Write the structure tokens for this entry.
Amino acid sequence: MNDQRPITIIIAIALVGVVLLTKLFLIQVADDSFLKRAERNAIQRVVDHPYRGLVNDRNGNIMVYNNPIFDLMVIPKEFSVKDTARFCEIFQISKEDLIEGYTSARKYSSVKPSPLIKQISTSEFARIQDYLIDYPGLFVMTRAVRSYPQKSAANALGYIGEISAAQLERDTVKYYRQGDYVGLSGIEGFYEKDLRGVKGVKYKMVNVRGVDKGSFKGGEFDTASIAGYNLTSTIDLELQKYGEMLMEGKRGSVVAIEPKTGEILSMISAPSYDPNLLTGSKFGSNYLLLNRDESRPLFNRPIMAMYPPGSIFKIVQSLVGLQMGVLTPNTTYACNRSLVACHNHPSPVNLFGAIRNSCNPYYHQAYRAMINREVSSSTFKDTEIGLNAWREYILKFGLGGPLGIDLYNEKGGSIPSSTLYDRVYGPGRWKYSTIYSLSIGQGEMLVTPLQMANLAAIFANKGHYYVPHLIKAIDGDSRKIPEKYRTKMDVGVDPHHFDLIQDAMAEAIYGTAARAAIKDIAIAGKTGTAQNPQGEDHSVFIAFAPKEDPKIAIAVYVENAGWGGRAAASTASLMIEKYLRGHITRPSLEEYVLAGKFM
Amino acid sequence: MRQDDLYINKIDWISICIYVALVIIGWFNIYAAVYDEQFPKSIFDLSINSGQQLVRIGAAFLIILLIMVADYRVFDNIAWILYIIFLVLLIITPFIGKEVNGQILSIGFGSFRIQPSEFAKFTTALALAKFMERPSFDLSTFKHQLQALTIIMIPIILIMLQPDTGTAMVYFAFFIMLYREGMPQRYYVLALTFIAISLLALGIEENLYIVIGVVALVLLLIISGKKKISRIIALVVLGIGIIAYSYSLDYVVSKLPEHQQNRIMVLFNPDLDPLGAGWNVTQSKIAIGSGGFLGKGYLEGTQTKFDFVPEQHTDFIFCTLGEEFGWVGSLVVIILFCSLLIRLVMLAERQKNRFSRVYGYCVISILFFHFMVNIAMTIGLFPVVGIPLPFFSYGGSSLWSFTILLFIFIKLDSHRIQLLGRMG
């Protein structure tokens, strides 16, 4: 029935074979234009990397820029030199180096470019530029390497590095390619999208060996790269560098904030490192070294280290007590040292006196009044309700969770809730005597130095703050920074309660931190000493100045430096004077701080 | 031992030799496609594709061994079960499979992954053979036509959902088998004419070859028909329809948004968009075209080495061959493919039962379609469709499914005498 059909199928198969072979013959043998296109005119897609944005400090001093580095490249096959001596003179290379460089280039590939002289300076480049034309097979390749001229603020600025496989996977819009450099931490990481710019594409004609033969169709299909935005940092480089100098040989943090705006004037993490170590080809080996360093220079202490705040927390307690109505300026408690240890001062004290003298028993008793409001007949239940209600007040001070600085990996510290104690002791099995350490900023409470500085800003502003941030303008436009850095945050305490607090803090300088006092500048501050079971206590100090029109709020945390009135207060005082006056009038205090080594 | 000798003699060694030759040439080409002259690695290196493909070839030989020692009746018996199992796998693939480039094609655990759409080809072939084996089956009745079509369309629809248009298209190749089994000629005349007219109407010079081929086929069909007068009447009616259709097609295309028009046109003329949709074909043609008569020599290809050709070890593997072995290399491979296909037609025709013959033609249909479309797209004769070149392209699923497909037929063929007794 279908006798002819198998034949038809066989003919069809043969026919397809013949058609394919004919077409193949036409393009492979009869037409040599494809061979020529392959030899000369292959089109290569070349990504045009944009210029990464720069970072300036608040006064226009450059913090990060792109350092052009020139490599003299050689294509061995095209390269020829008639007068070797002259060549060596022009390019300032010894004959041995030239031969060695050429040989190794040749070994790599005779047709692909290899570097002959690496990292030529800009002035060198300008000099040799005119001679290049005389030597075929030589050209200069430009690379940009991130450079940090001030060697400062390493942890705030962060670094860039090759994109990881995980990051590539997360990049759903497929912007990045393997081998691309991205900001990995710090400002470089957080503002990656602003700094990176937009890649362009160039279609180049390359010959079969990959050698450039000009742009495809005169660049009709090319798109130019768009340079990244320049950022203006809130950091005052001079203050930052001064602070870094003061913190040399110490372990800790200094954070200074402009209270009116939340702009971070300086953020010092000590010990630190030279940011230039993490650039270019040395990135990998240097990163390993820094990462292994026992002093943990890569650990960004201001936002990642968490400590019990110690006595500085008493101010927050005072404010919350006032707002709750538990405390009035006239509330008086005896300095009853059977409750908790204290030091010698007149007793009993009112609220002003309690702040000025940092009286522990006062806050033990005041905190009990805040927690046990007798809303429940069970003291356990009453404590639980009281703690959670109190915690709501505290969280508004930007504690117990990340503030939202423009850096990744910010830690939030912790303000314990009833859940924590339920977990540790069991529900209904803990009461005020379990949690009283919180009254003086100890116990299960942790804050970061950034949060401490923010507290100082809140006290200076009488009850509000702006989320601390490191960038004040993108591409010169302050409206391009995230909305939250321009939003006023209210802590829910009436401004008039702050008057007494500010006065007491100004007085406290003369009580517990006499060293911090500066002639003609009114400083309000509070010392703290956080107990450290592992060794010497940590030294804490927060302050703002001038008291009547605060321009700087600061927190200094020096690990293992002992009593807060000493190292921390002195450092803060010097920073304040440096910022407000521009110079230091107390060289002896500066020497004292510089001499302190607490590592 | 005498028995064994006899069995070995019954196996068709000609097709097996061609198969082995194609697999080996393919493997060398995969190595050439990934070869990097700066950092040469051994062809056996497991960190590169050729090494991994060797493992898969080894597995393919194991599969062959299993098929050859299996009971020949098993394929007949499990045809429906396999068909249904793979339909279920196709249904669940989008839910449990791994997404690659917006398609979810493969399922499996860890590094062992298979593409059900590849294997469903041979299960569909078995099901068709089983279905058409019944003595009462007659393709000239509309009911049976529809039933056969349903068996083919179910996997097509499921694969389109993945979505993998290229692989789904392959299933239309079963119409070659249906043609042999007596599907009325008029369908084919209509379909081929339709294709030819569409191409002509879009005004494509590049594809003149397809048009010539199609016209030749149509003529062949008409000549082989018997009722000549009615054919001529049909042709006249068709002629009028053609003119109307080509005008309407032009009209429809001109009404599409511009970017969609471009997308259609670029399928036929890659030079319209040399950097976008036309990139693959342009680069592929440059690679093959630069091969010349004798080629640049093994591992001496430059276009494939500089990554100009995308997918060069999978769907565009023919580029490496064309570039490094020239027209002579292409000639050898195309002759090998055509010989294998023609040999398989001969084997299919010598089957004494319908199950084996239908299955044989299914194998021929699928291999023929892959071979034709894959090579045609690398030289710009056909729009780019992502389907592999049988036995050549890198990848386990494709190699294994083609191997299973082919060797079940070789197995059935080796038992054709026993199977004779089963004819109703």
